[in-house]
Amino acid sequence: MAYLSMGEAHRRITEYLNRFSDAVLTQDGSSLKQLLSISSNSPLLLSLADALNLFHDSNRLLKQSDRFSQISEIVSPLFRSIQNFRLGNLLDSYNAFEKAANAFIQEFRNWESAWALEALYVIAYEIRVLAERADRELASVGKTPEKLKGAGSFLMKVFGVLAGKGPKRVGALYVTCQLFKIYFKLGTVHLCRSVIRSIETARIFDFEEFPIRDKVTYMYYTGRLEVFNENFPAADQKLSYALMHCNPHREANIRMILKYLIPVKLSIGILPKNWLLEKYNLIEYSNIVQALKRGDLRLLRHALQEHEDRFLRSGVYLVLEKLELQVYQRLVKKIYFIQKQKDPSKAHQLKLEVIVKALKWLEMDMDVDEVECIMSILIYKNLMKGYFAHKSKVVVLSKQDPFPKLNGKPVNS
Amino acid sequence: MDRRQRRNPSASSSAFSSPASSSSRFRSEKFSSNPPKTSNSLEDAHQLKSKCGKPQRPKQEEEGEQDPNNLLSLVGTCPFMCPAGERAQRERLRDLAVFERLHGNPGKTSPSLAVKKFCRTIATKHMQASDVRPLPVLEETLNYLLNLLDATEHPFEVVHDFVFDRTRSIRQDLSMQNIINDQTIHMFEEMVKFHIISHHKLHSCSSKPSFSSVHYLNMEQLKKCLISLYALYKENRNSNSIYKNEPEFYSFHVLLHLGSNNQPLGESLSLWLGRVPSLILKSKEMCFARRLLRLFRMGNYKRFLCTTATEASYLQYYIIEPYINEVRALALSCVNYCGYKLHPYPIAHLSKLLMMKELDVESFCNACGLETSTDERGNKFLSTKQTNFHYPKEVFPSYCLLGLEHF
Question: Where is the composition biased (Low complexity) (chain B) (predicted)?
Answer without folding.
Answer: 9-25
